[in-house]
Amino acid sequence: MEPIIIRYIEKPELKNPVLVEGLPGVGNVGKIAAEYLKDNLDAKLMVEIFSKYLPPQVLMKGDGTMYLVRNQLWYYKNDESEHDLIILVGDYQGMSSEGQYELSYKVLEIVKEFGVNLIFTLGGYGTGQLADKPRVFGAATNMELVEEMKKYDVYFSETEPSGGIVGAAGLLLGLGKELFRMEGVCLMGETSGYFTDPRSAYYVLEKVRKYFNLSINMEELEFQSNEIGEITNQLKEEENKVEKKDDLGYIG
Amino acid sequence: MEPIIIRYIEKPELKNPVLVEGLPGVGNVGKIAAEYLKDNLDAKLMVEIFSKYLPPQVLMKGDGTMYLVRNQLWYYKNDESEHDLIILVGDYQGMSSEGQYELSYKVLEIVKEFGVNLIFTLGGYGTGQLADKPRVFGAATNMELVEEMKKYDVYFSETEPSGGIVGAAGLLLGLGKELFRMEGVCLMGETSGYFTDPRSAYYVLEKVRKYFNLSINMEELEFQSNEIGEITNQLKEEENKVEKKDDLGYIG
Amino acid sequence: MEPIIIRYIEKPELKNPVLVEGLPGVGNVGKIAAEYLKDNLDAKLMVEIFSKYLPPQVLMKGDGTMYLVRNQLWYYKNDESEHDLIILVGDYQGMSSEGQYELSYKVLEIVKEFGVNLIFTLGGYGTGQLADKPRVFGAATNMELVEEMKKYDVYFSETEPSGGIVGAAGLLLGLGKELFRMEGVCLMGETSGYFTDPRSAYYVLEKVRKYFNLSINMEELEFQSNEIGEITNQLKEEENKVEKKDDLGYIG
Amino acid sequence: MEPIIIRYIEKPELKNPVLVEGLPGVGNVGKIAAEYLKDNLDAKLMVEIFSKYLPPQVLMKGDGTMYLVRNQLWYYKNDESEHDLIILVGDYQGMSSEGQYELSYKVLEIVKEFGVNLIFTLGGYGTGQLADKPRVFGAATNMELVEEMKKYDVYFSETEPSGGIVGAAGLLLGLGKELFRMEGVCLMGETSGYFTDPRSAYYVLEKVRKYFNLSINMEELEFQSNEIGEITNQLKEEENKVEKKDDLGYIG
Question: What is the 8-class DSSP label of residue D27?
């Protein structure tokens, strides 16, 4: 079989499109953000990607039917910005590192056809800690984009993420820059990494919404985000109680 | 070497054949069911499949001779139904996930030649518990098949199997649907997952027998099934005793 | 690079040659036997095999120089038998199961050119126990060879080796039989599996020597074998003492 | 995508060039030495290598920008020796053993074009112990080079490194010798293996500097080396104290 099988559903004319990626990863931050984006913008399916680099698996739809795991490209014509969007979502990333290269390269080949020169990849940055308000870390392919994203309160650190960025979120930018003359940004929402984190996804998606002037209704994601916020506050209060008790213990 | 080597033993004319798959997996439910089917119907060998995606291994026959591990297709002309059968059995599934894709794809290519449009894959659904009477779970490629299988008391759950279906039983259906215009059903016999389970295989094969109106003598498999049933009852009784003791302990 | 790189040193005319394989494995029984055979017969190097399926490694020669890991074919013209020999030795087997298939297939392609129709693979059969006198287990590609090898006191079991034969020793026979019309025997020397076992190799090589009427001087291997035998006896005596003590303990 | 993507920055005319390799490994000895060499000689970038055999990863530059992981070749025209240099550095070695073969083979193909016949690979030799003054172990492709390197106090052992040399440092020499008619030496600096070791790198690079009569300013690496030396001395003193205490304990 072809290692990667591409099925075009539609080949739309797109205006200076930007690729926005959100595949499964730390806290599923990128996946939540990108799928919310696609659903809320009522984006249209344009490409389906099947591959032996994905797990050998079907998933259940809940009505007794199943579907083969896949990645997908959806497009959205954005009248309020100079950029249309192509959104990459999927059930899984490639299972092997070679498979990740192959899949990212193929996606870049496809979106190049549609005129993509700019990429936003979305992900989580696992800190192992509960944050009051998650920051959004950035990494870009050039200094102009770094400076531009700083205006949107994206946080660029000298030292973080210290291990670089692994998987599609890094590879699309790295391969895009080196082999396809694309530039781009990775936006990483701070997250504990212990659970699926729609709050972190909310803060990440807010940057994307503002940057591309998108008419997204953020209400539902904000609601989920607030829920996570409340749980986080409760957890932090309990942590504090435990610590205070411990402190008293030492004093008494 | 060719990654997958196909040897045709016979190229029979088949009437609207359905592929029935049963390869090793949880409780070996699918393998037991498919091999019982093939043996009892006195099916004929049509294709042998060797592959570097299978383990690098020969198995012993018991008389001092050995054979290279393989998958096989057997056919059965079924005069009492509109469907002839092609039965896929084998010593192993592919070892890597890429190998599983390649092997499933190749099987689909082969059976397409013979006119297969419908696939039944057989497997086990490991619950970690001893069931009084194993249910048969289903998953299908379309709603018509879901409804049809419900008539045969196949159980479709909104949530199970929660992790989807991994391996050939899922992949043949997923790839078959997306790339070969085939439809199909996966039948999964409830099983503890702790041992080889001919009882679960019995209940799975009963669905297949009835659906395709097959003249299988189920006696031997029923006998093995009853043995497992008795062992299960004994184990459950002992569990109950232990629990009752524990209960008394709390009271006393 | 070519996945497997073949370098012919010499292309001798061989008389009805048999392939004798001994690569690293359980107790290194096969490797010890095959290398002793090659050295003692003063066999000639005919083919070197390099491959990315072998470990990415060089080994030291002891004089400060190194060499790339490889497999090799050596030949021996045997005037006292109808069979010349091709002996397969090497530093490693393939690292992945796909690599093992590729390497075995390539070796079979090469030796087919020289007219090989019969294969003897040599290995160890790990029992986890110290044997007084190691038996030599057999597995063959047909019943005639089973019967023939029984005359040489090769032991064929209904149940052993229960897991079949993994790696080159099995694969050369399995692929040879299915794809190259070759027949063959695997000879497995009983060994504890805890250490390199020249004694087991001695008993295995004795079968080969007698079968092909080879003028090998077995003295040195017999000497090493006797050393292992003495160590084994000491270990068994100590085991017995411990057991007797335990027995007395129960009585007293 | 091409498994390995080569980008030529420049194709210089080089005089009898030698390949000097230093990729990540034990104590990062080779990497530190080769990168110090390249930086200090103000070498020029000639080739960039991207590959799916490297990790699917981008690394941070510290200013908010990122870059795709890669290997690189740099050249240096050496007026004070008969040999110009090509220096191989990189973020990672290949992730799989097959990838290591492919990458080493490709590098050899490239440098062959520029006339390389001699290779120096640099690495660490992990002993698990803190050495007063790290020795530099050697392994060469022929006896002449062994003898020549002995003049530079390179230490050749009959038994070490007992496991051979794994990875690019071994493979470039092994493949170079067998398939590209190149000769070469591996220089391995003794190192504990517990931390990044610029001291070991210093001693390794000193051999290279002297052999090729290179005008390298070793000051900075010597400074780092001395720091490691002091830390090592402190650690050893503490070890001694602990041991003495223990000794006294037994006496008292």
Answer: G
Residues of A in contact with D57 (CB under 8 A): 164-167, 170-171, 174
Share of chain B above pLDDT 90, in %: 83
Mutate which: B2, B61, B65, B71, vs C, most C CBs within 10 A: B65
Topology adopted by domain A4-251: Rossmann fold (3.40.50)
Which pair of structure tokens corresponds to residue D241?
């104290």
Each residue of C49-86: pLDDT tens digit? 999 999 999 999 999 999 999 999 999 999 888 999 99
Which pLDDT tens digit goes with each residue over C99-126? 999 999 999 999 999 999 999 999 999 9
Give all chains having 3 or more CB-to-CB distances under 8 Å with chain A. B, D
Order across the sheet with C57-60: list the strands: C66-68, C57-60, D165-166
If you write DSSP's letter for every residue of B187-226 in order, what string do you get? Answer: EEEEE-SSS--HHHHHHHHHHHHHHTT-----HHHHHHHH
Question: Domain residue spans in chain B?
Answer: 4-251
Q: Which residues of C touch D102 (CB under 8 A)?
A: 1, 52
One-letter amino acid identity for A68? L
Give Cα A56 distance to the centre of its chain. Answer: 23
Nearest CB neighbour to B139, from listed A50, A64, A99: A64
Q: Would an 8 Å CB–CB cutoff place D97 in contact with chain A?
A: no
- Does B61 touch chain C if contact means CB atoms closer than 8 Å? no
Chain segment C159-195, per-residue pLDDT in tens: 888 889 999 999 999 999 999 999 999 999 999 988 9
Q: What is the pTM of this model?
A: 0.94
Assess whether pLDDT exceeds 50 at residue D252: no
